[in-house]
Amino acid sequence: MTPEAVIFDCDGVLVDSEPITNRVIAEEVTKLGWPLDLAGAIKAFKGNTMMGVCTLIEMRLDAPLPDKWLHALEQKIAAAFRLSLETVPGTAEFVRFLTSQSIPIAVASQGSVEKMRTSLGKTGLWDYFKGHVYSADMVPAPKPAPDLFLLAADKLGITPGNCMVVEDSPMGIHAAKAAGMMTVGLAPDGKGSDLIEAGADRIVHSANELTAFFQRKTLCQ
């Protein structure tokens, strides 16, 4: 069955923000007394909300974060995005193809709308989503709960079972499966075993594979 809509995670799927975000987090957390490098930060925080990240840091430090620490962190991440953020290879082409075929698309991210406006605006993707940009801030529970994906499907007017979700984290795959949606795990590193364990229906290593899949389906119609 060809999906009637595609819902994207943002960080690590549409934009290559995970290394930038986690580099900044690692630098700031190290200053607080928890030595972290980029790999350690990605392992600890990938797929989480910023509030979830803060909770994990406070648990590790056994102390509350300094006043306005999160706000300062978000400002540093936004500045880094404006300097060097790019799309994940192949995703811009996939988004443009879906748009050309009038296939509805949305973004459903743990991050704030403000953060997505910065990242998708910097990479030229914001306008393609025509307002269908949804944040965990908009629902009662973030991923791995299904709330965010169900909200996106409802706003698109598409039955959840007819939606495809593209995710790069096990937490996101769990959320999409709980919503009853088709799940694709994007693993540019060539691995993806954690996404398979989370229940992904399919693993791809580039969004170009998804473009080719939809092109074949279009030709067969």
Automatic annotation (TrEMBL):
Pfam families for this protein: Hydrolase (PF00702)
Record key words, sorted: Hydrolase
GO molecular function, one term: sugar-phosphatase activity
Entry annotated with the keyword Hydrolase: yes
InterPro entries: HAD-like_sf, HAD-like_SPP, HAD-SF_hydro_IA, HAD_sf, PGP-like_dom2
Protein name (Swiss-Prot/TrEMBL): HAD superfamily hydrolase (TIGR01509 family)
Lineage: Bacteria, Pseudomonadati, Pseudomonadota, Alphaproteobacteria, Rhodospirillales
